[in-house]
Automatic annotation (TrEMBL), chain A:
<feature type="transmembrane region" description="Helical">
    <location>
        <begin position="82"/>
        <end position="103"/>
    </location>
</feature>
<keyword id="KW-0472">Membrane</keyword>
<comment type="similarity">
    <text>Belongs to the binding-protein-dependent transport system permease family.</text>
</comment>
<protein>
    <submittedName>
        <fullName>Phosphonate transport system permease protein</fullName>
    </submittedName>
</protein>
<dbReference type="Pfam" id="PF00528">
    <property type="entry name" value="BPD_transp_1"/>
</dbReference>
<dbReference type="InterPro" id="IPR005769">
    <property type="entry name" value="PhnE/PtxC"/>
</dbReference>
<keyword id="KW-0812">Transmembrane</keyword>
TrEMBL record, chain B:
<keyword id="KW-1003">Cell membrane</keyword>
<feature type="transmembrane region" description="Helical">
    <location>
        <begin position="15"/>
        <end position="34"/>
    </location>
</feature>
<comment type="similarity">
    <text>Belongs to the binding-protein-dependent transport system permease family.</text>
</comment>
<keyword id="KW-0812">Transmembrane</keyword>
<keyword id="KW-0813">Transport</keyword>
<dbReference type="InterPro" id="IPR000515">
    <property type="entry name" value="MetI-like"/>
</dbReference>
<feature type="transmembrane region" description="Helical">
    <location>
        <begin position="79"/>
        <end position="103"/>
    </location>
</feature>
UniProtKB/TrEMBL annotation, chain C:
<dbReference type="InterPro" id="IPR050086">
    <property type="entry name" value="MetN_ABC_transporter-like"/>
</dbReference>
<keyword id="KW-0472">Membrane</keyword>
<keyword id="KW-1003">Cell membrane</keyword>
<dbReference type="GO" id="GO:0016887">
    <property type="term" value="F:ATP hydrolysis activity"/>
</dbReference>
<dbReference type="Pfam" id="PF00005">
    <property type="entry name" value="ABC_tran"/>
</dbReference>
<dbReference type="GO" id="GO:0005524">
    <property type="term" value="F:ATP binding"/>
</dbReference>
<dbReference type="InterPro" id="IPR003439">
    <property type="entry name" value="ABC_transporter-like_ATP-bd"/>
</dbReference>
């Protein structure tokens, strides 16, 4: 294509880029062949024959929700909310000192500061379910393990977000207070906190929205919330009740997102 | 107001009241939540030795179990790749339809916006359960669940990026007589491609994490062997799987982060 | 030939962009539209390639009333009419070549253009046009690495690659410094003379209008308030068009 009579040759740089893109494309292709062939081999194609029947059997039942056990469902949904709330609040408080530790403008020693950042990164790499399993084994099954899990996973993200907020504050206020002879505690409460608190709260609310969703899976490993009930209901092929659970969760999530979104708008 | 000020506060009175009230409510609901979830931190800290002992029951991990976990881990990653691919493809028309720089019809625009919002309210566990109930136990419901789960997030991110593109560049392509596909390919794609790649990688990371959930509801992947080993109380095996999984997550996220930094 | 017959345009918010415009522009003319900001210059030229749609009257381009055109027909019209913008509107992250060859989009099938399968002839044409505006050395550079004047020359090459019958330029020099402005105007003039492409340029600098135009059309409040050969125009004419004395910023200045 490019050896057109009147067009100049492509520069070396572009040719290299072309080769690089080609290499990337080949690697991607290999990965895709690997992934798709694996998946196709693992696929149970016979289930597609039952699909038609399943859909005719299951879908209508899902759409006629059964409210007889609404108390149980409500209790479990409330428990899910409590877990998310308690966990998020613990994380939101715990994240404050760690946020300061990981903020560049608050820590004099860069090494110490980087350690704070790494600590938070380390925390964020743990998927919820891994921590939930560890906590269920250590403190026993129940909602408490869920609270600990949410607290510990949420705090890594909040710590990072808090650190970014702290790094963006107006340091002139702090310097002026230092010049006036204020001590560290006074600077913290009168110079820094008023600047960062609204955004801290806003991020905590945002994380609460995420944690509501996250808390629904804890029950899979016995760490409380609605997860166990979802699992049992599905295993018993109690589709009408599953339909009810799905609707309830979607309504609760939308409601909490909406309220939290409104609050966040007013905060910032 | 009759009350003369005894000492002058830097905050207005009303605000102080409101803040205090809010704090009290937040704290009350917190203690209520702790009570309801039977979270007893005093007991927790006083029995720390017991907790620690139980934790130790997971150590040392049974490394001999690792070979059994490799197969399911590979399956997990393959599910995540396939699901990410599907959602990357489907999200393109979806995000174009929910970007106001492309769609001028208000009804269409709000319909697809709200559809995306609704998709993101459904937690991954519900999607997985739903698809298992329709398709039966296997890998297919897992792929579908992750596809829908990541589609909502990806399409939202991409449509927001498409909403920030420079419409003048589209106008120029339009003025040459290009049709809609050509306008998108020549005007939109170059402007959003780097972010799109970055979002795709990000969603792949999310999918790897979320695919852990699938096995517990019978939708394939490494979760199912964790579930079995947990039920058999084989905590040392569980720990070995968790460490393997964590290593895989860290590896994938490191590579993905590296690639993301290169493209943006 | 372009003919406006009693054309009016009301924007959805009620603003009257054009009011009963009647004018004919012959093939090969170099027309400059002048008027204050908001006079309706952009609305006027964007009606011609139907980037905006007049709400009343008839507008003939090449013998065809374009007001009702839609879909394929509309794209065919736009293929015949090239447009140059104040902010160049190049696709920033694409190469100069890709930007230039996008002028062929209207002539190229969708699949071919997406797969980048342009004919040798098209590629040669694009390169030839880059040469005509002396920007060929940047052919493989990214568009956003070029200066404003260079980008505007690329956008001229893009329009030329379209092989249009008419070129519309909406304030093509408003973002450029005086020497570059003159350079761009000279290229437009040269193309008009060599290829006999009808050229309509919006300007608000009166000295440039007088220097380059064959014919000047003055607009105020959506109406044509002056129309005559550039040789007949004096500063007094502009004061009438602008309805106020000439000020310094109405002049671009010389090179
Ligand atoms: N998209 C639009 N919607 C509403 N009003 C517009 C729009 N574009 C231009 N106008 C209005 O139409 C009038 C003419 O604008 P325009 O043709 O851009 O003038 P000029 O190019 O001479 O500055 C102005 O009052 C302007 O505010
Ligand atoms: Mg204008």
């Amino acid at each position: 294509m490019e050896n057109n009579g009147s067009l100049p040759p492509k520069p070396e740089r572009l040719k290299q880029k072309r080769i690089r893109n080609l290499v990337i494309a080949v690697i991607l292709l290999v990965i895709y062949i690997w992934a798709f062939s694996g998946v196709i081999r693992a696929m149970d194609w016979s289930m597609l024959q039952k699909l038609d029947e399943n859909i005719r059997q299951v879908l209508p039942k899902l759409f006629s929700p059964d409210l007889t056990e609404w108390r149980k469902v409500f209790d479990k949904i409330l428990e899910t909310i409590f877990i998310a709330y308690a966990g998020t609040l613990i994380a939101a408080i715990l994240a404050v000192p760690f946020g300061f530790w990981a903020a560049k403008n608050m820590v004099k020693s860069p090494v110490w500061n980087t350690m704070g950042k790494w600590f938070l990164i380390l925390d964020r790499t743990f998927p919820e379910l891994i921590l939930a399993i560890i906590f269920v084994i250590s403190v026993g099954p129940g909602a408490f393990a869920g609270v600990l899990t949410i607290g510990l996973t949420a705090f890594g993200m909040l710590g990072k977000l808090y650190a970014e907020v702290i790094e963006s504050i107006d340091m002139k206020v702090v310097e002026a207070m230092e010049a006036n002879g204020a001590n560290k505690i006074q600077i913290l409460f009168y110079g820094i906190m008023p600047q960062v608190l609204p955004e801290f709260l806003s991020f905590a609310l945002y994380r609460f929205e995420i944690d509501i969703r996250a808390s629904t899976i804890l029950g899979l490993v016995g760490a409380g919330g609605i997860g166990t009930l979802i699992l049992i209901t599905a295993q018993n092929r109690n589709w009408p009740q599953l339909g009810f659970i799905i609707i309830s969760i979607v309504v609760v999530v939308i409601a909490i997102d909406y309220i939290s979104g409104k609050l966040r708008k007013r905060l910032v | 107001m009759q009350s003369t000020q005894h000492h002058i506060s830097i905050y207005p009175r009303g605000m102080k009241m409101r803040v205090t009230l809010t704090l009290v409510m937040v704290a009350l609901f917190y203690f209520f939540s702790l009570h309801k979830t039977e979270s007893d931190f005093i007991e927790f800290f006083s029995n720390l030795d017991v907790v620690f002992m139980k934790l130790l029951s997971m150590f040392p991990p049974n490394w001999d179990y690792i070979p059994h976990a490799i197969g399911p881990l590979i399956e997990t990653i393959q599910i995540a790749i396939v699901a990410t691919t599907f959602s990357v493809i489907i999200c393109i028309p979806l995000s174009l339809l929910s970007a106001n720089t492309i769609v001028k019809n208000q009804y269409v625009y709000y319909f697809f916006r709200n559809l995306l919002n609704l998709m993101r309210t459904i937690p991954d566990i519900l999607l997985a359960t739903l698809f298992v109930s329709l398709f039966g136990v296997g890998i297919l419901p897992g792929i579908l669940a992750l596809t829908v789960f990541s589609l909502g997030i990806l399409a939202k991110l991409l449509s927001e990026t498409i909403e920030t593109i420079d419409p003048r560049q589209l106008e120029a392509i339009q003025s040459t007589g290009g049709n809609l596909l050509q306008v998108i390919w020549y005007g939109v794609v170059p402007q959003v491609l780097p972010q799109f790649i970055s979002y795709g990688l990000y969603v792949f990371e999310l999918n790897v994490r979320a695919s852990l959930v699938l096995g517990f509801v019978g939708a394939g992947g490494i979760g199912s062997i964790i579930d079995t080993q947990l039920n058999f109380l084989q905590y040392k095996n569980v720990m070995a799987i968790l460490i393997l999984l964590l290593a895989a997550v860290i590896f994938i996220e490191t590579v993905s982060n590296f690639l993301r930094r290169r493209v943006v | 030939m372009i003919t406006f017959k009693d054309v009016s345009l009301v924007y959805p918010n009620g603003t009257q962009g054009l009011k009963h415009v009647n004018v004919t522009i012959d093939e090969g003319e170099f027309v400059v539209i002048v008027g204050l900001s908001g006079a309706g210059k952009s609305t006027f030229i964007r009606s011609i390639n139907r980037m905006v749609t007049p709400t009343y009257g008839e507008l003939y381009v090449d013998g065809e009333n374009v007001i009702q055109l839609q879909g394929k027909e509309l794209r065919k019209l736009r293929t015949k009419v090239g447009m140059i913008f104040q902010n160049y509107n190049l696709v920033n992250r694409s190469s100069v070549m890709k930007n230039t060859i996008s002028g062929r989009l209207g002539h190229t099938g969708t699949l071919r253009s997406i797969l980048n399968l342009y004919s040798k002839k098209d590629r040669a044409l694009a390169y030839e046009n880059l040469k005509r505006v002396n920007i060929e050395e940047y052919v493989y550079q990214r568009a956003d690495q070029l200066s404003g004047g260079q980008q505007q020359r690329v956008s001229i090459a893009r329009v030329l690659t379209q092989e249009p019958k008419i070129i519309l330029a909406d304030e093509p020099v408003a973002s450029l410094d005086p020497p570059t402005s003159h350079q761009v105007m000279k290229y437009l003039k040269k193309i008009n003379q060599e290829d006999h492409i009808t050229t309509i340029v919006n300007l608000h600098f009166i000295d440039m209008a007088m220097e380059y135009a064959d014919r000047i059309i003055g607009m105020r409040d959506g109406e044509i308030v002056f129309d005559g050969p550039a040789s007949e125009v004096t500063e007094k004419t502009f004061e009438e068009i602008y309805n106020r004395p000439i000020r310094e910023h109405d002049l671009r200045g010389s090179e």
